[in-house]
Structure prediction request, 285 residues.
Amino acid sequence: EQAFAAGQKWAWHNEEVDQAIGQKHNLLMELDRSIEDGKLVVVYQPKWDLSAQALDGAEALVRWSHPDRGLISPEIFIPLLEQAGRIDQLTYLVLRRALNDLGAWDKRRPGLTCSVNISAKLLSDSSFVDQAIAMVKAAAVSNGQVVFEVTETATLADPDASLLALRQIRKAGIGISIDDYGTGQSTISYLQRLPIGEIKLDKSFVQSMVTDKSNQVIVKSTIAMAHELGLKIVAEGIEDQQTMDLLMQYGCDIGQGWHISKPVSSEIFTAVWLDSVAEEQRLSA
Ligand code: C2E
Ligand code: MG
Ligand code: MG
Ligand code: MG
Prediction:
């Protein structure tokens, strides 16, 4: 069903393709409306300090509660927004919420950190970088409490612009973490030249490390290497106690995963994780 059309090189007359494009378009329109109406939900997954055995903070993760389709995963709608060049609006929304919530947590428990995911492409958007920094500076939080998580592909796609942006971000007192480390192409020695403070080991290595010996070796040596280079290391995807024990044995700094907690609303995070009584009960359990 391919056909030449006058004035066009190729035209597709394929119903399935038309339908898929139409659906994508509809989804994007609905998403725009949800962003405008502030209808996206931000949940928080606790980050647990494995050496101090204390709460370090949380990572903000976005959810889209669609009126008919239910909860839609960010893994579906984030790429849509990125392709459409409209990821900045969503990121402002998540950052604004995260800064608000962190400000409220800080009154009960000073010094917690909050990580926000920043899409690759946004690092080469100087107006985004300027505005995001201004938002953090205007918030009632201290240096180092806000962390931007960026994937390593971000820094490779446009190295010059990214490096400039990362330096600016770091200078503003915002921490930088390399997300999903190990899934991309970059070496730790390349990353070490960037102004980062932390790498986040991808869950694909962590989830199976108890049974998969080669992943265990990768995790153990990455932790050692990160430390040699003066970087903190976070493990995501901790699903059981055995994994947590191994990570502690290897000296991993921070852990995240379902075994510690699934992502929860700010209200639940506050009630369960910031209440010192609840914490004592949890620790002695
Ligand atoms: P990520 O930043 O690597 O986040 C970790 C993902 O692993 C989250 O999925 C989290 O819910 C999930 N996870 C946490 N612990 C466990 C565990 O023990 N086991 C397993 N199997 N999974 C675990 P989520 O929330 O679906 O987010 C997926 C990705 O979407 C994130 O990966 C991040 O790249 C992106 N994302 C989420 N929120 C935002 C956002 O506000 N902005 C941008 N640009 N991207 C976002
Ligand atoms: Mg992340
Ligand atoms: Mg990750
Ligand atoms: Mg990921």
